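Entry 14. Ran structure prediction on the chain below.
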Amino acid sequence: MPDGVFQVAVVTPEERLVDTEARTLVLRSSDGDLTVLDGHTPLVTDVVPGPVRVEPADGEPVQLAVHGGYLQVDTGPTPETPEGSVPVRTTRVTLLAGVAELRDQIDVPRAERARDEAQAAVESLRAATGRTGTSPTPTAGSEEEGQSAEEIELVAAESALRRAEVRLEVAAPA
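Output, structure tokens:
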């Protein structure tokens, strides 16, 4: 592989959406925005819902809407390093996502309907619960910890709204 180029795979349970040589991968983790370049430090981190951009070694950038997952950055010797020579280090990146969509596969009218429905649900549930802004993320046993059914529904509606917004952000013309 040429200098500055590394292997990137974006995989969901259903399919391998991206498998290419790239110069850059940009995404967001719970620690903030992250740009991966060749030679990146090995890393395992979460991926929060948001746009992901892969800049391939050749061709146009690939845009995806990713709705959470995990990223692994690994470095190691290239498989074709001749025995007895100094190993050449290479970077391999794998993004495992539960749900991800390529930009050209996003159904914009459907995402707009989902956004509108989720927004209406969020507004209704915020009024019912007396909350403003975003709710904390629910944890296992949330109802037992004092959250009402409406509060749990509010968190689910806010998550649905965020997924629709991510789809529309990725699908928007550049």
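Residues 149-171 form the longest helix (23 residues). Will compare against last week's run tomorrow.
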